[in-house]
Design goal:
The complex is a heterodimer of chains A (about 240) and B (about 230). With about 240 residues, chain A is α/β, with parallel strands linked by helices. Chain A folds into two domains: about 160 residues, P-loop containing nucleotide triphosphate hydrolases (Rossmann fold), CATH 3.40.50; about 45 residues, no CATH class. Chain A is built from nine helices and nine strands. The termini of chain A are far apart. Chain B has a single domain, classed as MetI-like (MetI-like fold, Orthogonal Bundle). In chain B, helix 2 packs across helix 7, helix 5 runs antiparallel to helix 7 and helix 5 packs across helix 8. Classes of the chains: A alpha/beta (about 240), B mainly alpha (about 230). The interface between A and B is medium-sized, with 19 and 17 residues. The structure holds adenosine-5'-triphosphate and magnesium ion. The site of magnesium ion (MG) has 3 residues of chain A, from helix 1.
């Protein structure tokens, strides 16, 4: 039986890279459900925040607490990168890979992978080298591969930044479906419209600090700080 | 000049008549070299992957050492293996000196560093591509190495072929440990050396043609593989 790993809590988290402070004193609780979107100007530390939560970047101070035991924690999370990392394998083998890592029988894994491929419109490309897919298809594949283990929490770093409208909509549909099935989502974006469409709550990061935490409605209707208001207005915020 | 023409003519005659001596030698060459290449790959791939995936003290030193080992003079390797396998040596009881096995051992020592080094470069490149994904998926060290070796298999084939090219043309070490014994340890390169010394150019040239042909095939194969590799068609 899989145990829940949420809620998770960040306490006084600091991250430094090359001796430069990137994140400073982050205090934050990620509850059991929600679709959180992380906003903020370029270089604010959004990517670093997600990578730190997931354990890809090292903290220099503070603690990250998850609910469960050590081993479950990593296995119940998934991460989708801004530039999709596609393995030099066929589409179906890309999808099956996380299952095989978790010692799921090969025939079962391939079966599940095939179903996923069909559901994202890649049913005709099962045996095709994933390296040949278009940018949008690669990102769909990366997202489907992240979701195949049914993660409790899914991190996404600007998953649609390089995609056009149609591909973005497909990704958003997949995300909403996962969210409605109970997956906790934490995502960064530069697309305010996308944030409005998807978010239940917002984290606004500014110069490595968590500037504002609020529900999506509150943030978009009546954000609290001048920086976030300027950001929403499309003013240049540095 | 006449010698060469005569030799060439005789060589072609030996080739088309499927001369028994010639083919015995070719077969033994292939058998020794292919065995050595397989063993060296089985050792070299994991070394390459291990060096790529693990961070440890003196890692750079280990890689530099590996690259230095690529330049080992074959005669010295031959001498070393000879001393190990000779009657009075530590492995003398095995009676392996002057057998194809001794030649395989020498070739494995010569080409393993080459295969490991080329594999390391290929796997390191792939690792930088896969790093975040494999860490995110919480793959164990062992799973990482397996994944990288499998997904880099095209480049690893290039490493194997490079090892084959080096081994098939090698003469110094296998002459020492094999002894160039007729019907037992004589291979392409040692036979060419011997026949040339005797002034019997027909067999030498025939063997030379085959050796050159093999080298061309190997290099063409490496070229084609690395081209498809770059085009992302792996
Ligand atoms: N390895 C590193 N060494 C030094 N500084 C780094 C390193 N990695 C990131 N940074 C810096 O950390 C800051 C935050 O980077 P991060 O990628 O988290 O920002 P971001 O909010 O995701 O920006 P963007 O919107 O452009 O994606 C940036 O100023 C960046 O230059
Ligand atoms: Mg970023």
């Amino acid at each position: 039986m899989v145990k829940a790993i949420l809620p998770m809590r960040l306490q006084d988290i600091c991250v430094t890279k090359s001796k430069k402070p990137i994140l400073t004193d982050i205090n934050l609780e990620i509850g059991v459900s929600g679709f959180t979107i992380v906003l903020g100007p370029n270089g604010a530390g959004k990517t670093t925040l997600l990578r730190t939560m997931h354990g890809l970047d090292r903290t220099s101070a503070g603690t990250i607490e998850w609910l469960g035991q050590n081993n479950d924690i990593r296995k119940r999370q998934a991460f989708v990168f801004q530039t999709p990392i596609v393995m030099r394998r066929s589409v179906i083998d890309n999808l099956a890979y996380p299952l095989l890592l978790n010692n799921i029988a090969k025939s079962l894994a391939l079966d599940m992978a095939k179903k996923r491929a069909i559901s994202i419109g890649l049913g005709q490309a099962l045996e095709q080298n994933a390296g040949y897919l278009s940018g949008g298809e690669k990102q769909k594949l990366a997202l489907a591969r992240a979701l195949i283990i049914n993660p409790e929490i899914l991190f996404l770093d600007e998953p649609t930044t390089n995609l056009d409208g149609a591909a973005t909509r497909e990704i958003e549909d997949m995300l909403l479906k996962a969210f409605n099935n109970g997956t906790r989502v934490i995502m960064t974006t530069h697309d305010i419209g996308q944030a409005r469409r998807l978010a239940t709550d917002i984290l606004f990061i500014y110069r490595g600090r968590l500037h504002e935490t609020s529900s999506a409605t509150a943030f978009f209707e009546n954000s609290k700080t001048p920086e976030s208001r300027a950001f929403l207005n499309g003013d240049i915020v540095e | 000049m006449n010698d060469i023409w005569l030799g060439l003519l005789n060589a072609v005659r030996l080739l088309v008549s499927l001369d028994a001596d010639l083919f015995e030698i070719v077969l033994r060459s292939l058998q020794v070299t292919i065995t050595a290449v397989i063993i060296a790959s089985l050792i070299g791939f994991p070394i390459g992957a291990w060096l790529a995936v693990n961070r440890f003290r003196h890692r750079r030193l280990a890689i530099a050492l590996l690259n230095a080992l690529m330049g080992l003079p074959p005669v010295v390797v031959g001498l070393f293996v000879y001393l190990l396998l000779s009657r009075s040596g530590p492995f003398g009881v095995l009676n392996l000196l002057f057998t194809p096995t001794a030649m395989i051992i020498a070739q494995v020592i010569i080409i393993t560093p080459l295969i490991a080094s080329i594999s390391h470069q290929a796997i390191r490149d792939l690792w930088s591509e896969y790093h975040d994904l494999l860490i995110s998926l919480h793959a164990t060290k062992w799973q990482r190495m397996k994944t990288l070796i499998w997904d880099a298999r095209r480049s690893l084939l290039t490493a194997t072929l490079a090892g084959f090219g080096r081994a098939i043309g090698e003469v110094g070490a296998i002459m020492i440990v094999g002894g160039n014994i007729d019907h037992l340890t004589r291979v392409l390169t040692t036979a060419i050396t011997l026949e040339t010394g005797k002034g019997d150019f027909a067999l030498a040239i025939g063997l030379g043609i085959i050796l050159v042909g093999l080298a061309i095939i190997i290099n063409l194969a490496i070229h084609i593989i690395s081209k498809t590799e770059r085009a992302g068609t792996w």
